[in-house]
Design a protein that fits this description.
By secondary structure, the chain is an alpha+beta fold. The chain has two domains: 206 residues, Endonuclease III, domain 1 (Orthogonal Bundle); 117 residues, Nucleoside Triphosphate Pyrophosphohydrolase. It contains 15 helices and six strands. Strands 1, 2, 3, 4, 5 and 6 form a six-stranded mixed beta sheet that branches. The model has no long low-confidence stretch (mean pLDDT 95). It comes from Flavobacterium profundi. GO terms for molecular function: 4 iron, 4 sulfur cluster binding; 8-oxo-7,8-dihydroguanine DNA N-glycosylase activity; adenine/guanine mispair binding; metal ion binding; oxidized purine DNA binding; purine-specific mismatch base pair DNA N-glycosylase activity. It catalyses: Hydrolyzes free adenine bases from 7,8-dihydro-8-oxoguanine:adenine mismatched double-stranded DNA, leaving an apurinic site. Keywords: 4Fe-4S, DNA damage, DNA repair, Glycosidase, Hydrolase, Iron, Iron-sulfur, Metal-binding.
């Protein structure tokens, strides 16, 4: 089996037309790779287009405010990606005279750029022969070559990297890397792949051994924490709202939110209301969603209620709806505002 030749032939027939594949500009490629970490192409592409419209060069991104960058990122999640993106743009402009590193090893020095992202940029922008290894590559290689190694273990990554590097055609690194990732995204998908039309059917270990559903092997389970958020939508006599920036490290760092009451366990609603009545001279308290809103993050589930607290007086530092909508905020809060106040 000539794996790389078969794979590339499949890719040239089946690949999606995506803008970051039509360029060798390292800024465009880096931007797309950061956006597509933890994000599907269909969701990420509008953000890619929006970022290039607002920040067509790395210099434009570097000179933007973090608030503008976070606002444009709103809804993509994993906001540390946006903060790293902005910090790296400033580093490239201020320390590297606006020039991207042009090889794998130097790309690794950029904040937010790990081995996979460095390999992707190096191969796509400079055709450097470094194989990419991501979730798609783990899945494709484990199934076709029968690698029954636990991909949650660090040592396993080295085995997959070694095999991918051996399969990589030295003079066609960019095409091969695009092809193997696309094959994993479109054909060798995680659940119920259509093996009947697969070009590797006759050579696929997992298909022949009926192990498609169990490869790749991944033993570690993510432990999910549960947090109970009660957002107080403080609304004053001038119809202005109170929001504040989350400055502690953790989820939604530097995004804006309503006044938050957080609990480790689900409280009785009357306890929450009693607390509100103690703290605020409320003329009206309204539970805006009786059914909790479940917002799932990678390692935690947020159980969210919104409670509108109307006051007879004006509140210092409260802001208008128009100003509030200009601030970057978690998408769950943005959607709540859009559904209830716009």
């Amino acid at each position: 089996m000539n794996f790389s030749k078969t794979l590339i032939a499949w890719y040239l027939q089946n690949k999606r037309s995506l803008p970051w594949r039509e360029t060798t500009n390292p800024y465009f490629i880096w931007l797309s790779e950061i956006i597509l970490q933890q994000t599907r192409v269909a969701q990420g592409k509008p953000y890619y287009d929006a970022f290039l419209q607002h920040f067509p060069t790395v210099q434009d991104l570097a000179f933007a405010t973090e608030q503008d960058v976070l606002k444009l990122w709103q809804g993509l999640g994993y906001y540390s990606r946006a903060r790293n993106l902005h910090a790296t743009a400033k580093y490239i402009v201020q320390e590297l005279e606006g020039q991207f590193p042009n090889n794998y090893n130097n790309l690794l020095s950029l904040k937010g750029v790990g081995e996979y992202t460095a390999a992707a940029i190096a191969s796509f922008a400079y055709n450097e022969p470094v194989a990419v290894v991501d979730g798609n590559v783990f899945r494709v290689l484990s199934r076709i070559y029968g690698l029954e190694l636990d991909i949650s273990e660090v040592k396993t990554k080295k085995e997959f990297q070694k095999l991918a590097q051996e399969l990589l055609p030295i003079d066609n690194a960019a095409l091969f890397n695009q092809a193997i990732m696309e094959f994993g995204a479109l054909q060798c998908v995680p659940k119920s792949p259509n093996c009947s039309i697969c070009v590797f059917q006759n050579n696929c270990y997992a298909f022949q051994k009926k192990k498609v559903d169990v490869l790749p092997v991944k033993s570690k389970k993510i432990k999910i924490a549960h947090r109970y958020f009660y957002y107080l939508v403080l609304r004053d006599a001038a119809n202005h709202f109170v929001v504040s920036k989350r400055e502690e490290k953790g989820i939604w760092h530097n995004l804006y939110e309503f006044t938050l009451l957080e609990y480790d366990q689900k409280p009785f609603l009357k306890e929450v209301v009693a607390h509100i009545q103690e703290q605020y001279p409320a003329k009206e308290i309204i539970l805006k969603n009786e059914k909790e809103l479940l917002h799932k993050l990678s390692h935690q589930h947020l159980h969210i209620h919104f409670i509108e607290v109307s006051l007879n007086t004006k509140i210092e530092n409260a802001i208008s709806m128009e100003k509030m909508l200009q601030l970057p905020m978690p998408i769950v809060i943005h959607n709540f505002i859009a559904a209830n106040y716009l």
